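Dig into these lines:

——
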Amino acid sequence: MKSHILPISILFFLVLIFFHKIIFTDQLVRGVDIIPYNLSVKAFLNNAITSKESPLWDPYTYCGIPVITKMQPAVFYPLDIIFHILSLPIAINICTWFHIFLAGVFTYFFARELGVSRFGALISGILFSFNGYQFAHLISGHTPIFRSLPWIPAILCCLERSISKRNLFYALTGGILLAVQILTGYPQITFYILIAVVFYSMFKGFKNIGFSFVIIGIGLLAGAIQVLPVIEIMPYTTKCSGASFDYLNISSFPPFNLLTFIIPEIFGDGIHVTYWGEWFFGEVMGYMGILPLIAITIALCLYRTRITMLCLVFMLIFLLIAFGGYLPLAESYYRLIPGFNIFRCSARAMVIFNLFGAILSGYGISWIVENPKRLRGILKWLMTLSLIYGIIVTWFCLDKTMFWYHIIQLMLSSGRVVEASPAFLLSMEFATPAYYLSVYGAIKSLIWLIISIIVLYLWSRQWLSTRLFKAVAVIILVIDLWLVGYKYIQTVPFEDIQIDQETIEFLKKDKSYYRICMLGFLSNVGQRYGLCQADGYEPSIHRRYSELTNLCNNMPLEKSFPLVRFSRWHNLYNLLNIKYIVGTANIKITGLPHIKHVFSSEHNSIYQNFTCFPRAFIVHDFELHKPRDVLKRLAEGSFDPLRSVIIEEKPSLVFKNMPANTKDTLKILKYSLNEVIIQAELEQPGILVLTDSWNSDWQAYIDDKKARIHIADYVFRAIELTAGKHQIRFVYQPKSILYGMIITLVTLGLVVIVLSYWIRKVKN
């Protein structure tokens, strides 16, 4: 183990350098999803635990959503315990840089297990931790992906060791690590790991397929506490219930973006110049460094072994997966092969592509160190390549901006650019800096190519000592990756992302049950401050809720996106219990007499909707419709939700249409995360409508007797009540979590017994 101390120390030192902004300051790492989503959901979990409540149901987003089944909150992930010990900003920062460090360490050990030299394995670890794709994801704020990174090489390392040692111990360990990865909350990466594990064992020989099944079986069983709730909710989400191919095709890796492996800024960098390529920059940038590309080429040309071919095959497999919708017949295999019809952003398969690219680069560097004299032949080809590339870059620099302007125009005419407005992109105000940034990237890559060739030449002549060559190679790689990645480590003071206290105090003064919606914010504010919210940002949105909000926004019902915003007023917003509309100070709402301005602070404005429906109410009439017809009826202006409710199953009671002045009383006695208690008194039979999202795991009890819950008005809950006084209790009781917990504990117990027996046997 002593021989590994230096490489691990170097990896840790590099983490300190790259992430000094968030390690040595009180700044919060800033990413598109970190502030609006990750920070909010962790605040919700902390508040729930502080209040001694189980964080099973979240009433603060989308009129209520399940928490465990969303996965991304990572409720059971062991390392996320720091969120309950440290402040949220510090915990998010540590979660980011520590997992990057672990990813490098486990990649190092995986490379060593494959026979890569210590120095080559160090290069592999550096490359997997700090490549451009990881940093582009950092600015996107995809912390669950960072949580997943370390466990990919760790699982594959256990698989390789179990195969090479013919020992089940390592397969069981790999299964536990797979369970840990499942608990990180990113099922798409889990899906890609399962593919990698199966293909890896098959490539090593079909006799080894059993080890992969052990890892997958133990992983799924030990992670059942997370797996079963997800399986239960899948049929109801937009991702798993008939999502369109266009939706699944979002952020496939464009073949054009292979150019980012050489010039990462070629389509803009998303910081200094707006990204103008296809999809979103954080998903489709693939830079790995110039020296690693040379090392990969050398490994494939001069060091052909079964393992280097394995790495090449895996790189090709996961590059093809990343291409996604760009492949011929992509829609067919998306529909036919299980799993591909669930996940969008297939470009995330680049994570595994990068891992095997890093391993292959480590092999190439190892060969270079061991065979300096044999480098001379390939250096001639590299010099020729650098000359050709230099001519192209020179021509590119002399062309000025018009050629670049025509390229942008061509991209726009093909409909490929999705992240910026055409008018802006076609302006010379944009084209000029875009051109100069791409020129900077091209010159930079040429300089690194020349420097790499010079260093390799000096090494081939033995004019550098082994230690000096290794040191120079590490420095070249680190500076190259630093110049690409450092700008994506953005920070923000924690106090700058808080909603001002005056706004929160105003909303908290209203003790009634209501919901808010946000204008001018991309944030699940409700989760952070305990305010129920009708809109928000959630990756796994319930299909029905998505369709209802699309109806309100006059959008195609099948269109799905994790961000729900209310862009135009619709009378159904009253049914959603939206009482307050919160926006930035400059937000103005006009032309709606029922919505009036009621509060202003330095940063925020609040408008009140005076026609908002109560959270719960009683009706004495119903309409029976099939699910596909409910939205049509809701859209009709003649439908009044306060007088009648639309249900999808025939009620057991007989209802009489009552006059509007019926004297019914209703009071909410308790409203917590997993329980709602309502007291109601009716003159005649009626239906209680609770405008909280329906879910099959909610149970209802009327005077302690179990009752049926109807799906009301497409997304809400309703129960039938006889005349008289009743106490109604809604309780969230997800059986899948209970069953999953039992399976997880039993599996872990059996694995511990087997591993303990094996360890004792080895000692004896």
In short: DSSP finds 28 helices and 21 strands in the chain. Residues 428-460 form the longest helix (33 residues).
